[in-house]
Write a structure and sequence with these properties.
There is one protein chain. By secondary structure, this protein is α+β, with helices and mostly antiparallel strands. Helices cover about 35% and strands about 25% of the residues. β2 and β3 form a beta hairpin. α3 runs antiparallel to α4. The radius of gyration is 20 Å and the shape is elongated. The relative contact order is 0.19.
Amino acid sequence: MNSIWRLAPLLFLLPLLSSCNFFDSKIVQSCEAGLKRKLTSPSGYKRIEITQHESTLSRLEYAAYLADREQRIYGGKPVLTETFLRDFDEGRQKPVLFTLYIDYDEPNTYGTPIRHISKCTYVGNDASNVLEQDVSVDGMSWADLH
């Protein structure tokens, strides 16, 4: 009976730990950080569910992605496209499109939680070292998210 009372404070803390992101992957952390930049009330954000999909890009899809990326970053100059496509052709690049659908609640101006779904995307060889500025949320790059 005495040992149960010793565990009582720990049992109280368990619900608090469920809201922490200790075990989230890097891509989930980056996508949520980008999403929160977009929200009018980031402190009211409450994750409901995240669904993740992965698909390997073809050469044509990868070239289109690189062209769009260089248009946004370098004003359309093909800075690295040729190098990345050469690496793709030689098998050194195997780009994957990672897509996360984030279901979440955010309070409206009256405090009532409203359900939303956002789409977060990232293109890379793996999602283990994603940086926050590398993701796109609802088609908006990191620089576009305020």
